[in-house]
Design goal:
Elements (H helix, E strand, L loop, with lengths): L8 H13 L3 H7 L2 H12 L1 H20 L7 H6 L5 H13 L1 E2 L4 H7 L8 E2 L2 H5 L2 H6 L26
Antiparallel strand pairs: 1-2
Length: about 160
């Protein structure tokens, strides 16, 4: 992020998503799901709690970046946090599978959630654009056919080109 203007919550969400998924910002943007998943986060945990998550994530990511800490501030602030860790896990699943998995009951008891926090497929596009397909070197069944006769060749990850 540039130093001239502070990042928007959606930009922070994108950076958080980069850190959680291991995919770069262009790859995530290429899915067309950043806006949808940002809106999903707000619906699942509420704007106030999402704002807190984004604030903590932004501060940790800035600290890692400026002090060259390589994730050592982010992990305790978000991943290992009892408050934000379960949300991070649900976000990872959302990016990879296109489905929101509800937060654990223990989390909801301590921090709350919304009535929308139930397991559901966010959209057909989320299924087709799930990062799991890229990570597996595959394609979503019924979603992005690889072409006639492609089954005759091994997946590209199993047959790397030199």
């Amino acid at each position: 992020m540039g130093n001239s203007t502070p990042p928007t919550p959606k930009q922070i969400f994108a950076e958080l998503s980069v850190e959680l998924t291991g995919f770069d910002r262009a790859e995530l943007a290429g899915t067309g799901m950043i806006d949808t998943y940002y809106d999903t986060l707000l619906r699942m945990i509420g704007e106030r709690e999402a704002g807190q998550l984004l604030r903590f994530a932004s501060e940790a990511l800035d600290k890692d970046r400026t002090e060259k800490m390589n994730g050592t501030a982010f992990r305790p602030a978000v991943i290992d946090s009892p408050r934000f860790g379960p949300v991070a896990v649900s976000l990872i699943k959302l990016w990879y599978l296109g489905m929101w998995y509800p937060l654990p009951a223990v989390y909801r008891d301590l921090f709350g959630s919304t009535a929308d926090d139930v397991g559901h497929v966010v959209s057909g596009q989320g299924y087709r654009e799930g990062l799991v397909w890229v990570a597996a070197g595959a394609h979503p069944m019924g979603g992005k056919p690889p072409g006639h006769g492609s089954w005759a060749e091994p997946p590209s990850l199993l047959n790397p080109t030199p």
